[in-house]
Amino acid sequence: MHQLTKKRAVKSDFQASGLHLAAEVETRLRVESFQTLEQVDSAKRYHLTLDPAFPLALNLFEFPAVVGAVPMTWHERLEIFCPLAGSGTFRIGEREEAFEALDILLIDNLRLHAVGRFEGPSRRALVVVFYPELVAAPGALPCDLWLLQPFQHLRDGCLHLRSGNRMAAEAWDCLNRLVLARVERSADVEGQARQKAILAELLICLGEAFRDSLVERSDYELRRDKLRRLAPLFEYVAAQHHAALSVTAAARMLKMSASYFMRFFRKATGLTFSVYVDQLRVGRAHQLLVESDLSLAEIAAETGFCDQCHMNRHIRRRFGTTPGRIRSMARAPGPS
């Protein structure tokens, strides 16, 4: 009976902390519509300018309701995804991770990733990103490097702290205090010192929560170098996505054998080369459906699909609806 009472108390504390955070975030942080297209380059790298003197960002994003509307990208910022309401799936490479409100996900930022599905009347999430140097600069002490250990063990694409976990309440309490410190004193040095201390406390909490998962150090630096080596191929495919490009031709471009290239590409991105190209084409087709007056057949030809039926199948698989429906929804008048 004592244990049951204790568990209920922890759950109650967690719910209060989560609700308090949601209220504070939605009251004090500006809600932003999540849009990345203008900040994504041909290599699918998502650029975000952070203050070099204090590279930390906390954003409250409202995500679109359309399934698959957020393009898959990668970046060099460490990322913590914290849904405040609603439920959905997060895609990392070919994997989909289901999440609920008040879960916490540590994302493998070097793999292609994006919110896939987000359902509910409120589809908002707090997204915390920072550069590793904020916590452990080059030459840092071992104790500083230890704080980043959860991000060095993302072999499956993410680490997932569910809302029912006993450590969730502590993690959300840290997030709550981090948000408040950010909005109250974001610019001055003392305020930044407080934020860094709270961030360190959050990382200690996450390290404890994921202790049983931290079994092998990942090759983070190696994978980042792999993505950079793929940059010429990314640029070519982005410019010539309408043209056919075989695995053999892609491998030759990078001076690799076809078998080595396929292993190299999947390890670097989390996707096979063919899936990557298909996603790029589907994303471009979606953009043309929304922004142009081209016919469906013309869009299929422009984006490199065999024919309109081939494009329709890929779009339905990615977005859960037809190209015609996507176009009509984009052009429907908004609420007055």
Topology of this protein?
Blueprint: H1 2-28, E1 31-33, E2 56-62, E3 78-83, E4 87-92, E5 95-99, E6 104-107, E7 113-119, E8 124-130, H2 142-147, E9 158-161, H3 168-184, H4 189-209, H5 220-229, H6 231-239, H7 247-253, H8 258-269, H9 273-291, H10 296-302, H11 308-319, H12 323-331
Parallel strand pairs: 1-2
Antiparallel strand pairs: 2-8, 3-6, 3-8, 4-5, 4-7, 6-9
Helix pairs in contact: 1-3, 3-4, 5-8, 7-8, 9-11
| CATH structural fold name of the largest domain | Jelly Rolls
The total domain count is 2
What is the CATH superfamily classification of the largest domain?
A: Regulatory protein AraC
Characterize the overall form. Answer: globular
Oligomer: single chain
| Secondary structural class | alpha+beta
Overall pLDDT level: 82
> How many strand segments?
9
Structural features, described:
- The chain is an alpha+beta fold and 336 residues long.
- The chain has 2 domains: 2-213, Regulatory protein AraC (Jelly Rolls, Sandwich); 230-331, Arc Repressor Mutant, subunit A, CATH 1.10.10.60.
- Helices cover 46% and strands 15% of the residues.
- It is built from 12 helices and 9 strands.
- It has helices at residues 2-28, 142-147, 168-184, 189-209, 220-229, 231-239, 247-253, 258-269, 273-291, 296-302, 308-319, 323-331; strands spanning 31-33, 56-62, 78-83, 87-92, 95-99, 104-107, 113-119, 124-130, 158-161.
- The chain starts with a helix and ends in a 5-residue tail after the last helix.
